[in-house]
Write a structure and sequence with these properties.
Radius of gyration: 15 Å
Structural class: mainly alpha
Oligomer: single chain
Order of helices and strands: HHHH
Strand content: under 5%
Bound molecules: ascorbic acid
Length: about 130
C-alpha cells in the first residue's frame, strides 16, 4: 500500500488531520462556541469513527523519520500500541449515537479525547 515510509506517514497524518478537524467541530459545540446541531454532530461523529480505523496500518516499521511525529517506539511496544488503538476505536464507535444530545456529546467527546491523549502521551512526539 505504501511504496515509501513518507507515503505511510502522509497517509496516517491525513487521517489524523481529518479526525482532529471533526473533533474540533464537536468541541466547539461542547464548549458553546457553536450552536449544538445534532445532524452536523452526527456527521462529524461518523467521520471520526471511520477515520479512527485508518492510521494503524500506516505505522509501517521504520516509518519514524522525516516529518513523522513518533516517539516511544510503538513497534517495540506493539501490544500496548494496539490496545491504545482498540480503546480509541471502542470510544469512537460510541460517538455517533452519543451526540444526539449536547450532554451525550460532551460525555463521549471527553472519553474519546482521553483515548486520543493516552496514546499521544506515550507515542506522539509533539
Ligand atoms: C483533539 C485533538 C487531539 C485530541 C487531544 C485530546 O480534538 O486534536 O489531539 O483531541 O487533544 O486530549
Amino acid at each position: 500500500q505504501f511504496a515509501k515510509a513518507e507515503d505511510a506517514i502522509d497517509y496516517r497524518q491525513s487521517a489524523f488531520t481529518v479526525m482532529a478537524n471533526h473533533m474540533g467541530r464537536l468541541s466547539a459545540m461542547a464548549k458553546g462556541e457553536k450552536p449544538f446541531d445534532a445532524a452536523s454532530a452526527k456527521a462529524s461523529a461518523q467521520l471520526i469513527q471511520t477515520m479512527s480505523k485508518l492510521p494503524w496500518e500506516a505505522f509501517t516499521p521504520g516509518s519514524d523519520g522525516g516529518f513523522s511525529n513518533v516517539k516511544g517506539d510503538p513497534w517495540k511496544n506493539a501490544d500496548d500500541f494496539k490496545s491504545l488503538q482498540e480503546k480509541l476505536m471502542a470510544e469512537t464507535a460510541k460517538l455517533p449515537d452519543a451526540v444526539g444530545s449536547l450532554d451525550g456529546l460532551r460525555k463521549q467527546l471527553g472519553a474519546t479525547g482521553s483515548a486520543c491523549k493516552a496514546c499521544h502521551d506515550k507515542y506522539r512526539a509533539q
